[in-house]
Amino acid sequence: MEVSLARVDYLQVGVTAQKTMRLLPASGRRATQKVVVGDQDGVITCFGIKKGEPVTVFKTLPGPKISRLELGGALNTPQEKVFVATGSEVRGFTKRGKQFLSFETNLTEDIKAMCVQCLVFVVSLKLFSIYTSLVQHKPNAGLVQIRTLHEVDSLFSFSLGILCIDSFDILRDGVKELLVGRDDGVLEIYSFESADDPVLRYDYVLSESISSIQGGCVGKDGYDEVLACTYSGWLTGLTTELAYREGGSGEELKLSQEMQSKISSLRNLSSTFFLPPVLQSDVPVDLLDVDKNSAVVSFSNCDSDVSETKEMMMFLETIRSIEGRYGTLQAYVTPRIQPKTCQVYQYQIKPLSLHQRTHSIDHDRPMNTLMLKGQFSFAEIHSWVVFCLPEVPERTPPGDSVTFYFQNTFLGTQLESTYRIGEGCFKSDNISTISILKDVLSKEATKRKINLNISFDINEESVRHTLKLIHPKLEYQQLLAKKVHLIDALRELQVQEGNVDFLVPEYRSILEEADQLLEEYKKQPAHLERLYGMITDLFIDKFKFRGTNVKSKVPLLLELLDGCEQDRLIAFFEAAS
């Protein structure tokens, strides 16, 4: 007989230990069983399934972590009382969640296993005790004698560890099958035919370790299933009720009104549905350290008597934005849980995203000034500054006016922002910063239908000052690129000649530092292009404030930048005027 099971995910509790999930016996007219599970937060959860949805019967408050959960009761009665072991304590609950028992054993170690059959049997790492009427039975009886019945080979270890076992007639052939849950997440069903070895009839792979397993009827009356509890607390059933059933001739599958509305809404979404990427940005950004963006797995050391391994997945990516380009960066995160979900995190890329707050600036630098006047409130202009610059508190500062200082983390240029009701003043030694602020603030004021009176004072000396800040970085990156391009040729020459003693010291140093040069070049692949872009923006912004379009001269500027000296670059800026 072929086994065909359909997966159903019911709910998730906290992290669970081995054998902490059981099915209560069916009671009354209902043939379905309720599920009781205990987690390491100390919470006992009991729930049943009604109309396909889990309904909580009771849920206890958090406490010490639960190491075992068993069912018990009086002789010849349904075993529906819940007994849990927490540390060295045993507690009992009714099927309604009322605690009726709590006693402390004399064990100095935590209880590792427990069985309740009128008597309470508890086992720690080294001791075995029996309790009757809540009193230890024969405490001075000495060692327990063990008699050998059959000699078998001892297996000390095996590749696929078994964490839980149960028996249940899932095939309904009158013979119980063996249900096995393994450490690697594999659920297996074995059947026994006469005296032969067990035969694997079905297997299913879950995404994590299976801590508890039991067969019964949980989801729907008349359909047996195998219920498994995973390490992270997911209660998953493999039921004999198939998700789709074929109807006979003339039969139609009737759907509830709620199900029909859900299907209709999903059909409307299916035509426009797409699989989003991991990272999505409205604006161009540079991804740094791309070769190191794989997942990093970290394992923490555990005590020798605790079989627990913690795993942490981490994704690292460095992103550099371009000032003046602003939008939203979206990260799609898919946690390793069941059922599969996706979380979307949004990060705003601000117009001046490379600026950071600082306590003071150098007022002796040549500054360009942007003045704003209009019918706007203090809160409105503060919201504009929050939109443009990072590290600015969203709440409006107290007082009539406020001043913030910023520094560009890439170039080292500075920005001073002072504003009050109806007036704002922005000063920077970089014309491009003033140009970005002018464009963005004008657009934000237009959205709110606020008229702005914009004036500016451009200091020509600031252009020379900014070029002097950029040129050392440009010269270093050009020299680095030149050295990297020579490495392959020098290495080939070294192989052919056998040594490099005949090379000049400059080329020998390139060979000696080849690995460091390549590593540095990989870390900032677009660094040189970024500097070219900043110089080009500076050139365009300088003449934009004069009302002159110089984009036709940009190709000449790019030709000049290759191996260009600082004085020649400054002369080109001045000659273009």
List the helices and strands and how they pair.
Blueprint: E1 6-12, E2 21-23, E3 35-38, E4 44-50, E5 53-59, E6 68-72, E7 81-86, E8 89-93, E9 99-104, E10 113-117, E11 119-123, E12 128-132, E13 135-136, E14 162-168, E15 177-182, E16 186-191, E17 199-205, E18 210-220, E19 223-230, E20 234-239, H1 257-270, E21 279-281, E22 285-288, E23 296-299, E24 311-314, E25 318-321, E26 327-333, E27 343-349, E28 355-358, E29 368-374, H2 378-388, E30 401-408, E31 414-420, E32 423-428, H3 431-447, E33 452-457, H4 460-497, H5 505-512, H6 514-523, H7 527-544, H8 554-561, H9 566-575
Antiparallel strand pairs: 1-20, 2-3, 3-4, 4-5, 6-7, 7-8, 8-9, 10-11, 11-12, 12-13, 14-15, 15-16, 16-17, 18-19, 19-20, 21-26, 22-25, 23-24, 26-27, 28-30, 29-32, 29-33, 30-31, 31-32
How would you describe this structure to a colleague?
There is one protein chain. This protein has 9 helices and 33 strands. Helices cover 23% and strands 33% of the residues. It has 4 domains: 6-138 and 158-239, Methylamine Dehydrogenase, Chain H; 285-300 and 309-347, no CATH class; 355-460, TATA-Binding Protein (2-Layer Sandwich), CATH 3.30.310; 463-575, no CATH class. The protein has 577 residues and is an alpha+beta fold. The chain is elongated and about 105 Å long. The relative contact order is 0.07. The longest helix has 38 residues, at 460-497. A hairpin with a 7-residue loop joins β16 (186-191) and β17. The strands form 9 sheets. The chain has a 6-stranded antiparallel β-sheet with strand order 28-30-31-32-29-33, with helices on one face. Strands 1-20-19-18 form a 4-stranded antiparallel β-sheet, with no helix packed on it. A 4-stranded antiparallel β-sheet has the order 2-3-4-5, with no helix packed on it.
